[in-house]
Design goal:
By secondary structure, this protein is an alpha+beta fold. About 20% of the residues lie in helices and about 25% in strands. It has one domain. The chain has a three-stranded antiparallel β-sheet, with no helix packed on it. The radius of gyration is 15 Å and the shape is elongated. It starts with a helix and ends in a 5-residue tail after the last strand.
């Protein structure tokens, strides 16, 4: 039982680290002067494991990643977690 709990904790830590690699900003990247700033961020994962809970500090919300994506999905995509943040957040 202890080994199972330890494996679960390690899996949880690896999942969080893996998600941090795929933290993506939503918006146009190639424009010289970007007028399409949405202040949106999306959290997604390509990890095939249990749903992942996300909480953003300072009451910006929380959600769950339930979908598996091979590449960065659009903001608001089902199964990902998208939030609009104030500038400088």
């Amino acid at each position: 039982m202890l080994r199972l709990l330890l494996e679960f904790k390690i899996l949880k830590i690896l999942t969080v680290l893996f998600i941090s690699l795929f933290f993506t900003s939503c918006g146009e990247e190639d424009a010289d002067f970007n007028t399409n700033i949405t202040n949106q961020v999306i959290f997604w994962s390509d990890f095939q494991g249990p749903p992942i809970s996300i909480t953003i500090k300072d009451s910006n919300g929380s959600g769950t990643i339930t979908a598996i994506s091979d590449s960065s999905p659009d903001c608001g995509s089902s199964g990902s977690f998208t939030r609009t943040l104030s500038p400088g957040s």
